[in-house]
Write a structure and sequence with these properties.
The protein has three helices and eight strands; from the N terminus they run ααββββββββα. It is an alpha+beta fold.
């Protein structure tokens, strides 16, 4: 039974986003659903090697056994860690194969991200810690999160809660989040 399940998992992965012999990242109508290790806000801030606000400059698909998108971004503001003015980082998914329904960042998009340095040979310098768990889309003075953190409830923007389509989403004040990041990193 275990062997059968293992074979099915391997076949699923191979058919969803390619394999070494077939390095095409294929669009999927259902997307790819994965489980994440849940990081609290405090853990995310403490474990991140770099916390920055970036503007996406360009992106490209990285093919392999799992689809990834490599982003080149300009660092607009640094809240922790060291980086150059332009960095590269990986996001899961690409070419229509979305992971957990997360849209692929596009040139001109702005985000505050908690990043980890890649180890060994990699197509990019960093990867997003917990992917959507450490991603804050910049929308003026507010930040949009896919998942709600109770730890950030005190900095939610109350008058914007009616705009949230999904009850799990959260809109927080940008400046107050930056204050919390700096307090946590001290």
């Amino acid at each position: 039974m275990r062997r059968c399940i293992s074979v099915l998992i391997v076949l699923f992965v191979m058919s969803g986003c390619g394999f070494v012999g077939n390095t095409k990242c294929s669009p999927s109508s259902t997307g790819i659903e994965t489980e994440r290790e849940w990081y609290s806000f405090k853990d995310s801030v403490e474990q991140a090697d770099l916390i920055v606000e970036v503007e996406i400059v360009e992106n490209s698909i990285i093919n392999g056994y799992m689809c990834k998108t490599k982003h080149t971004a300009t660092v607009l503001e640094n809240f922790g860690g060291e980086s150059e003015q332009e960095i590269t980082f990986l996001q899961e998914g690409g070419n229509g194969a979305l992971v957990n329904g997360n849209e692929i960042f596009q040139p001109g998009d702005r985000y505050i991200l908690m990043l980890k340095e890649t180890v060994g040979e990699s197509a990019a310098q960093f990867w997003i810690l917990g992917d959507e768990l450490s991603t804050y889309k910049v929308d003026g003075h507010s930040l949009i999160r896919k998942y709600r953190y109770e730890e950030l409830q005190s900095i939610e923007i109350d008058h914007m809660t009616d705009l949230i389509e999904d009850e799990n989403m959260q809109i927080v004040d940008r400046e107050k989040l930056i204050e919390k990041v700096k307090e946590t990193r001290e």
